[in-house]
Hints:
alpha+beta, Arc Repressor Mutant, subunit A, elongated
Amino acid sequence: MPREEPDSSQRSGILRGTLDLMVLKTLAQMGPLHGYGLALRIEQLSENALRVNQGTIYLCLVRLVQKGWITATWGPSDNNRRAKFYALSKAGRKQLKIEEDNWERIAGAMAHIMRPVPES
Length: 120
């Protein structure tokens, strides 16, 4: 049975603060990628439930480079165009662990909040 893809009204924007974690995790799993490739991969992994705005991903990448969590180098893309590729740095690996731990804490708290309260 084919899987239905959500239409644009069902796709969600990314929660504030989670894009950094998704970029770091994707680079840790996939290795160096260019910005467009990162955005596509995040959308694929979310089964198209999330949409990644191109402007937002590039602002995130600039911010992560400035923090030293990722590096940027120029290279040829799949279609032989010049593209900037991003890779996780040593500091980024440490930050990824911090971000993952924080996400687990927040997700656990949300699970408790969303759990139905038993009736007395």
